[in-house]
Amino acid sequence: MLNHRLRPLLPGLLLCLAVAAAAEGLAAAEVRLFGQAWLEPLVLAILLGTALRTAWSPSSRWLPGIDFSGRVLLEVAVLLLGAAVSTATLAEVGPALVGAVAVLVVVAIAGSYGLCRLLGIAPRLALLVACGNSICGNSAIAAVAPVIGADSREVASSIAFTAVLGVAVVLLLPLAAGAFDMTALQYGTLAGLTVYAVPQVLAAAAPLGPVSIQVGTLVKLVRVLMLGPVVVAVSLAHGRRGGARPPLTRLVPWFIVGFVALMAANSAGLLPGPVAEGMTRLSGGLTVIAMAALGLGVDVRTVARAGARLSLAVTLSLAGLTAVGIALALTIGGAA
Questions:
Q1: Cβ atoms within 10 A of the Cβ of 250, count?
Q2: How far is CA 214 from CA 78, 88, 112, 257, 290, in A?
Q3: Distance CA 72, CA 76 (A)
Q4: What is d(CA 290, CA 15) in angstroms, rounded to the nearest whole number?
Q5: Which of 100, 141, 104 is nearest to 234 (CA)?
Q6: What phi, psi does 120 have (nearest 5°)?
Q7: What DSSP designation does 82 have?
Q8: In whole angstroms, what is the distance from residue 247 CA to residue 306 CA?
Q9: Is the separation of the CB atoms in 296 and 94 below 8 Å?
Q10: Rounded-to-integer distance, Cα 17 and Cα 23, Å
């Protein structure tokens, strides 16, 4: 039974492993040539995967393993990262930032939705884009779509932009750290405030080290926790239109529950040092493989097919969120 389930995953999984290995090799070559890796393996894996996907469309034989690597392995990596985080880090983030994140999500949804409608985007698609940009990308889109009765075209269009722009944010956001001379705490805050998906925070925050990754993940989790209240509010607003409420497991994913459990165990001293370190290293390795899968799922040509108005709406919405994120990171991150 187990072999029957694993066999379809092998081609895509091995492809992701090969791309991840190439990324690690290129990073090692950077160190030998320049004394440091200017592009981290996580970023290189995304770039290599995206380049391969844009030049070649994988057949159905490859897709199960790519999907498994980009979804399940990524979720496991986030879960294991909880072993590297403690409540002391959460205290360092501070309650002021937690409140600011909640306010930012509400303002970002309203602003993104208003911008989309101003540019003539249909209401349902505008709401999907707003929630995807402001909360957690594909997960938010998937949770909100059944509530508002969105059709497959609207869901596909919004997710396509999440995939492409999500990669762009991961690649470009580190430039803000140098431009604004951010500390690891400040940059981690910015990554958590702006990056679409929880796992992608690992890649975006990696250039400034473990503190940046831990803070970014915690801040991002606060954003993700806003998904529940937002979906409930949308559900109530559309209750008379026959929208279906998504299950609790979609609002609170299993890997977030696991992350919190490991964080609590680590804070209570229940995880021996070598165990926690091993989990952290495994999380990093799985993330590189998952980033390769993420790149393999992105065809940059999808942006050209989505339409100029939608492209402009999503890009401006994300730019506004990033600008506010930088301001909050510099203010609260510097005060923490």
A1: 15
A2: 11, 11, 28, 16, 18
A3: 6
A4: 11
A5: 141
A6: 85, 15
A7: G
A8: 30
A9: no
A10: 10
Cα–Cα dist 90/260, whole Å:
11
Angle at 210 between CA 207 and CA 216, to 5 degrees: 80
> In the chain, which stretches have pLDDT less than 50?
240, 242-243, 335-336
What are 17's two structure tokens? Answer: 């492993």
Distance, CA of 266 to CA of 84 (rounded, Å): 7
Greatest alpha-carbon span in the chain: 63
pTM (predicted TM-score): 0.66
Amino acid at 322: T
Quote the Cα angle for 239-240-243, to 5°. 50
Where are the chain's structural domains? 2-335
Of 135, 117, 136, nearest to 126 by C-alpha is 117
Q: How far does the chain reach from its first CA to its final CA, in angstroms?
A: 52
The number of residues in the chain equals: 336
Q: What is the C-alpha radius of gyration for the chain, rounded to an integer number of angstroms?
A: 19
Predicted confidence (pLDDT) per residue in 39-59, tens digit? 778 778 878 988 898 899 899
CA 167, CA 300: separation in Å to the nearest integer? 10
Give residue 167's pLDDT.
76
Looking at residue 160, its amino acid is: A
Please give the helix or strand (H or E) that residue 107 lies within, else none: helix 95-118
pLDDT at res. 187: 92
At 162-196, the pLDDT tens digits run 767 777 888 889 888 888 989 888 899 899 988 87
